Amino acid sequence: MPLYEHVYLARQDASAQQVEELTAQLKGVIEGLGGTVKKTEYWGVKSLSYRLRKNRKAHFTLMDVDAPPPAINEIERLERLNEDVLRYLTIRVDAHEEGPSAMMRRAERDRDREERRGERGDRFERGSRDRDRRGGRDSDDLDGMTEE
User: Fold this and answer.
1) What fold, for 3-95?
2) Looking at beta carbons, which pairs linking 20-29 to residues 24 or more positions away fall under 8 Å?
3) Confidence of residue 109 (pLDDT cuts 50, 70, 90)
4) pTM confidence score
C-alpha cells in the first residue's frame, strides 16, 4: 500500500480534546478501509502566515498513513465537510520518517534553549535605570562631585 503524510489544520476555537477526537475519527475511517496509521503528532496551536476563514491561529496535526487511495479520498471528503478543519494536505512519500518529525524536533530544541537560558540568567547586568542625562552616569556616581 502507498505511504502518505497527512497534515490538517483545525480552527483555533476548537479545544485540544476536539482535535484529538477528530484525529481518532479519521484514524477509524482509515483502519475501516484497510489502512493503518503509523504515527500521529499533535503540533499544537501555531500562528498562520495569513488569515484563513477569519482565523489567525490553528491546531496542527500530522498523521503518517499506510492506506489505499480510497481511504485517503474518504478522509479528505470528511475534512471538507467538517467546519473545524481549515486546511489539509496529503503527500505521498516513499518512506515514513523514523522518530519525531522536524516540527517536533524544533519544539524540543526550542525547549532546551529556553532551559539553558533560564540556567545562566541574564547575560548582562543592567545598571541603574536612574541615569544622569548630562554624562550618562548613575546618580550614585555623582554623589560627592560638585559642579563648577
Assistant:
1) Alpha-Beta Plaits (3.30.70)
2) 22/82, 22/84, 22/85, 23/61, 23/63, 25/78, 26/63, 26/75, 26/78, 26/79, 27/63, 29/71, 29/74, 29/75, 29/78
3) confident
4) 0.69
